[in-house]
Amino acid sequence: xxxxxxxxxxxxxxxxxxxxxxxxxxxxxxxxxxxxxxxxxxxxxxxxxxxxxxxxxxxxxxxxxxxxxxxxxxxxxxxxxxxxxxxxxxxxxxxxxxxxxxxxxxxxxxxxxxxxxxxxxxxxxxxxxxxxxxxxxxxxxxxxxxxxxxxxxxxxxxxxxxxxxxxxxxxxxxxxxxxxxxxxxxxxxxxxxxxxxxxxx
Amino acid sequence: xxxxxxxxxxxxxxxxxxxxxxxxxxxxxxxxxxxxxxxxxxxxxxxxxxxxxxxxxxxxxxxxxxxxxxxxxxxxxxxxxxxxxxxxxxxxxxxxxxxxxxxxxxxxxxxxxxxxxxxxxxxxxxxxxxxxxxxxxxxxxxxxxxxxxxxxxxxxxxxxxxxxxxxxxxxxxxxxxxxxxxxxxxxxxxxxxxxxxxxxx
Lengths: 201, 201
What we know:
Oligomer: homodimer
Order of helices and strands of chain A: HHHEEHEHEHEHEHE
Strand order of the largest sheet of chain A: 4-3-5-6-7
Number of strands of chain A: 7
Largest interface: A-B, 53 and 53 residues
Radius of gyration of chain A: 20 Å
Strand content of chain A: 5-15%
Mean pLDDT of chain A: 91
């Protein structure tokens, strides 16, 4: 019923998470109604983000240069590293203003059943970073999701660091995060308290 | 906190209707995660739709040629014209399979308080179309929204057609549509019944 270019747009919009067929159609109609400049700004923003954004060479967070803004920021304590699963987890932690250290983005969580093994995550880079850091790393805060795979990843990292960097404190965000939930959805207060109450693993 | 290209994408996504700041961020992160080809397909679809889609020269529905698919379809009865406010209203009516005539998209509803006067809508084109049609138009079904402005538009059109084309039946979708609602949200059954039970104005 729709002209092919409109149908294609509806299909592409419908691939976005949480966007059903009806919503995709409404968004497509909206883009048809607005002027070409406004629609073009969205198309450009998508293209630019893919062309200009890469992974930080140190922590694998999003970056528009070789190093991300946080790794470039001299005021951020390099002796404390917060380990998260995805780059989407950095922003909610930043919003709590509880953490002034650096990050390390793993790119997922260990899940042998889904074929995600230690070598599929940025774990080797984390261990190397902890071992070679100057000034030395004092603490690694593991902020993986409070899910089965997130917990397994936390325990795995704690085990390896106990061997390879026994002088480094390894901590985990306090419970208080709803178990089975997703860190990206947590509100600032809950996540802030979880940060303040982190415990040794 | 976000790199400028990411922030720009979040801003542009947040301009879409019903997409708040948090959702825009999740969509942006999704686009950062998928491969460049998939993200590019969305950007291209947006560009293509603006470049290739125009208004049908007869009915002002969306078209990828001079005339829309419905105006090109010989099986659609040209003697019955369904008048809608927006092109987004055509699809829900098509889904009811109650209507086999043609459409006329006004581009809005009369609302003097918002500065929308008869000359701002495709009304002159509607009247000319009704007067000059061969075969002659038998019926004009007014399917503007069941809102104050939609009703005012329906009454306005009925008044003009009574003068200029007194032989043409002018009908209005039956009540049954929730008053104050928006046609684009109606389910097929309700809208289908409203169509079947349309009454003379």
